[in-house]
Design a protein that fits this description.
The protein is 47% helix and 8% strand. With 104 residues, it is mainly alpha-helical. It has a single domain, classed as Reverse transcriptase/Diguanylate cyclase domain (Alpha-Beta Plaits, 2-Layer Sandwich). It has a two-stranded antiparallel ribbon with strand order 1-2. The longest helix has 17 residues.
């Protein structure tokens, strides 16, 4: 039950801090995906840093502080959705390998 509560609190932080045009969803057990139409990579990184800090500062129910690692990628003409997701996944794992609570 505590894990579900944390996931809900985490999702609420994401949802409250994205634009109306953005889409957030759960992507696996503890992973989330944010789709940001008409956004360049710099703005995506800016949002990732903002979200990382909000999550770090939030007092989660029964567990206190948590951290978040982010993988950012940008759609470019000629790549598939699968390639875009693979880029984001590789960036996420790089963040985790580099000590977590990071953005790549």
């Amino acid at each position: 039950m505590v894990g579900d509560i944390i996931l809900i609190e985490f999702a609420n932080i994401l949802q409250k801090n994205i634009r109306k045009s953005d889409i957030v969803g759960r992507w696996g057990g503890e992973e989330f995906l944010i789709i940001m139409p008409h956004t360049n990579i710099e703005k995506a990184y800016k949002l990732a840093y903002k979200l990382k800090n909000l999550i770090t500062d939030f007092n989660f129910t029964k567990v206190g502080s948590k951290t978040a690692s982010f993988g950012v990628s940008e759609f470019k003409t000629g790549i598939t959705i699968e390639q875009l997701l693979e880029q984001a996944d590789k960036a996420l794992y790089k963040s985790k390998e580099n000590g977590r609570n990071q953005i790549n």
